[in-house]
Fold this sequence. Notes:
Elements: H1 3-15, H2 21-35, H3 43-56, H4 63-66, H5 75-89
Amino acid sequence: MTAKEKIYYLITQYKKGKYDTNTFCDQFTVIYDTEVDYDTLSKIENRLFYELSTITSRFSPYEEDLKIPNIYYGEQEVRSKVDEVMNKLCCS
């Protein structure tokens, strides 16, 4: 499975509830940031995955972290961005 295929698999499985948000964020960040050859992604995939990676790399499950403005993202932001990615890439 290519890194790009792993990303699509991970996103669809997260949406189906097969991964918790913390695991999803860890896995997505590692795959996107270290395994993906960005030249294999379309322009829209590059933009959307980059935006999602920005959120997943700063995800925190802790309420006290989320009180700090403009640092961490919570589960709702992750889910919202995943929904946007799926809608724009038609993989829902």
